[in-house]
Amino acid sequence: MSEQNAEETSERIIRRPHVDAVVLAAGGANRFGAPKLLLPLPGPTAHPLITHVVDAVLASSVHRVIVVLGASASPVREALAGRDLTLVENSRWPEGMSTSLKAGLAAVCPDADGVLFVLGDQPGLQAKHIHALLEAFARTPADIVYPTFRGRRGNPALMARSTFSALQELAGDQGGRALIASGRFQTLAVEMEDAGVLVDIDTLADWERWQNQQMAG
């Protein structure tokens, strides 16, 4: 860790850190075969998946919520209408997740101590998961904080300012996991009470499995 990064980490622990959130909602859902972010969640309101995720982030104590749009920008924008968000369109979304990470990072407050990168397709995400990550980030010198359930790594991931230059080096479909695997950064796993942080919807089978789990209670 550089001297500058050490100073930033020390200041972060002393005061309440400033964390912005970036919700990644730009992908083309090629494996799913349809705009998965607009899937209606079970319940009386049947609101879209993306609104559930964004509302969970808004209910936490992050400073700003940035949503990166791409393949289904217009309907996702419409689904999120009326919320206090910063919407960013990533025209390079077909080039992979790294372009959305960078687009979101560019919109983050210059003084932010860290960024919470959230997948837009996590039906089990709750504000309490985010609160736990923020609390851990506030009391640790770790560069990357991520959730686990029974030892399995999940999402979202909170990246400290010390990782920002490395995030800019990512290419193609690389994401935060590449930084965790690199061994360049100090990481902290935060164990959660439920498996909500493990579920993201990539395929129709994922969606059907999650729905069946909900019906089973």
Can you give keywords for this protein?
eight-stranded mixed β-sheet; 8 strands; alpha/beta; 35% helix; 217 residues
Summarize the structure.
This protein has 217 residues and is α/β, with parallel strands linked by helices. 35% of the residues lie in helices and 18% in strands.
List the helices and strands and how they pair.
Layout: H1 3-14, E1 19-25, H2 49-58, E2 65-69, H3 73-79, E3 86-89, H4 97-106, E4 114-119, H5 127-138, E5 144-149, E6 152-153, E7 157-160, H6 164-168, H7 176-182, E8 187-191, H8 204-216
Parallel strand pairs: 1-2, 1-4, 2-3, 5-8
Antiparallel strand pairs: 4-7, 5-6, 5-7
Give an overview in words:
The chain is an alpha/beta fold and 217 residues long. It has a single domain, classed as Spore Coat Polysaccharide Biosynthesis Protein SpsA, Chain A. Helix content is 35%, strand content 18%. The chain has eight helices and eight strands; from the N terminus they run αβαβαβαβαβββααβα. Strands 1, 2, 3, 4, 5, 6, 7 and 8 form an eight-stranded mixed β-sheet that branches. The radius of gyration is 17 Å and the shape is globular.
Overall geometric form:
globular
Task: Output the helix-strand order.
Answer: HEHEHEHEHEEEHHEH
The total domain count is 1
Helix content: 25-40%
- As a percent range, the share of strand residues is 15-25%
Task: State the secondary-structure class.
Answer: alpha/beta
CATH hierarchy class name: Alpha Beta
If classified by CATH, what would the architecture be? Answer: Alpha-Beta Complex
Terminal CA distance reads 45 Å
Examine the coordinates and then state which fold CATH places here, giving the name of the CATH topology: Spore Coat Polysaccharide Biosynthesis Protein SpsA, Chain A
Say how many strands there are.
8
Uncertain runs are none
Please tally the helical runs, counting DSSP H or I stretches of 4 or more residues. Answer: 8
**What is the makeup of the main sheet?**
8 strands, mixed
